[in-house]
Amino acid sequence: MFYKDERLALFIDGSNLYAAGKALGFDIDYKLLRTEFMRRGKLLRAFYYTALLENDEYSPIRPLVDWLHYNGYSMVTKPAKEYTDSQGRRKVKGNMDIELTVDAMELAPHVDHIVLFSGDGDFRPLVESLQRQGVRVSVVSTIRSQPPMISDELRRQADNFIELQDLKDVIGRPPREVSPEREEAYADHE
């Protein structure tokens, strides 16, 4: 599955990975995650994508974003948009799919293997394109949650599917008590 001499890059869809871990009942220890994939190959880059609420003076995920940036992750953020839906509920929109796709396509000529941490079926064409360029693609998500967090099309397209639950002992830690504001900030940005 992984070869020690292959050049690796990680692409983490932050809200998607957070939701998958939450569905499985554990938090991700990002220091352990980076260490694990450095062990599996030559890790060139680890990208983390998330939208941040633009109007808040303090974003609940800002400490995580700052920690990741300081600890070797390439952070890709953009302002999330807040709106009220037809039922009067406050919603946040901050899709990072385009940014992740562009970065993966640009890096493809320089890597042998890309690990995508997302179950979003919108990434299937990206995986297919990367494979046409000779890049192997592993996808990390879960089929063990109810409902499964990975689209069937994405799982089938990937060269390798890694069940997030199987990584729990290596990269997981018990979930922390999360404030409602932080939970909302991590919620899957549409």
TrEMBL record:
Coiled-coil zones: none
GO terms for MF: RNA nuclease activity
Domain of life: Bacteria
Gene3D superfamilies assigned: 5'-nuclease
CDD domains: PIN_LabA (cd10911)
Pfam family, one: NYN
Domain NYN: 7-164
Annotated PANTHER family: SLR0755 PROTEIN (PTHR35458:SF2)
Name of the molecule in the record: NYN domain protein
Species per Swiss-Prot/TrEMBL record: Roseovarius gaetbuli
Biological classification of the source: Bacteria, Pseudomonadati, Pseudomonadota, Alphaproteobacteria, Rhodobacterales
